[in-house]
């Protein structure tokens, strides 16, 4: 046995009558072994495979599951989310050897002894992708573990769907400011309010996107130009903010206004994340081989959604499998699709209909709200190019109905790339399958943590109940 893997606690210096591990000299360990923490007066080390051991006078002993949890190392050993082979090994966190029944280690804020600039976190060193996508904070001042423990702050209600956007003028100003600086919080117009209009706060629980309220007000103004209430937006101060439903393009936006403008399959899911509920939108996704789980995973990934804001597989499955209305017998009518339909090769929204809600026009820049990144490469079609053009030229008032004319003005082709095969839609899934799987793990992990926190909260409430 290598003598460098033994340690006698008798060598721990005594300071003020107590042993102090902070006075121990740096350990000399075999190549690729690393000292990471202490278990009492015994050092904890990682071997080259990140397995955790404590060094004793008789040699290295593997840590039990509870010792791993106590020392805050669960994410870094095999089976943990930050291990270099994360995703290839079973998730260790739900496992136990049965000896932790008297103490719950979850959500304890452990402080590890390595320096701030040092990290062997595979999720971070494997690429800055997560930071660039906004799922974690790129700020390293809070330590090497901050990216794993801190919830991302990509969505800011005061910027993405603020209160006190009173009328069309306010809404256009909000859109222009968001176009010029995506980090600016909206400042309400001094002295402007709904007072005296008779408009009350909406009864809806969740806020609607400001761009959607603007679109509705524009439609009202066009229909009733002499109505002094038409320019006012719906009042929704204090309503609950949702990173998806309060930001993304809603289902009643008339995608058919794009006319003969083609859009890629990813643009459909990014810019119109609810339009799988349109019959022909669902048809195009299904023909491309996308399941309900794939669709929800793509929407969740491109917007880094979590918790209640995520798209659920069940709701997407229902929308793409059954007709919107029930038959005369009161039973669900399953959609029958013709695989030989010529529209399988159509990449526009011409002929798309949706008669469940009244349709509205929509600001083009509002399509990109809430997205971590715009589509790139072959996934970026005319819509993505036009959004970039409008931002660069501060054309914030362009609506969907203006897209065909604006494409001509900007010199942008209305066609998407043809792809390498017969159908570019069928090439999209293979380009993103690995990222979709990784992000699905993120969603599931955050859901487990949320449920665990709720269970702990409920347990604490039960303990505080006074017994009669």
Please give a structural write-up.
This protein is mainly α and 468 residues long. The chain has 14 helices and six strands. It has three domains: 1-126, no CATH class; 157-223, no CATH class; 255-440, no CATH class. Helix 6 (168-180) packs antiparallel against helix 7. The radius of gyration is 28 Å and the shape is elongated. The termini are far apart. The model is unreliable at 96-105 and 113-152 (pLDDT under 50).
Please give a quick description of this structure.
The chain is 30% helix and 5% strand. By secondary structure, the chain is mainly alpha-helical. The strands form two sheets. Strands 3-4-5-6 form a four-stranded antiparallel β-sheet, with no helix packed on it. A two-stranded antiparallel sheet has the order 1-2.
Give the termini distance in whole angstroms.
62 Å
Overall structural domain count: 3
Helix content: 25-40%
Cα shape: elongated
- Contiguous helical run count: 14
What is the radius of gyration computed over CA atoms, rounded to a whole number of angstroms? 28 Å
Query: What fraction of the residues are assigned to beta strands by DSSP?
Result: 5-15%
Biggest sheet details = 4 strands, antiparallel
Mean pLDDT: 82
Structural class estimated from helices and strands: mainly alpha
Report the count of strand segments.
Answer: 6
Low-pLDDT segments: 96-105, 113-152
Order of helices and strands: EEEEEEHHHHHHHHHHHHHH
Largest sheet: spatial strand order = 3-4-5-6
Helix-strand layout with pairing:
Blueprint: E1 14-15, E2 18-19, E3 34-39, E4 42-46, E5 52-56, E6 59-62, H1 65-70, H2 122-125, H3 129-132, H4 146-149, H5 157-160, H6 168-180, H7 210-223, H8 265-271, H9 279-287, H10 292-303, H11 313-321, H12 382-392, H13 403-410, H14 428-464
Antiparallel strand pairs: 1-2, 3-4, 4-5, 5-6
Helix pairs in contact: 6-7, 10-11, 10-14, 12-13
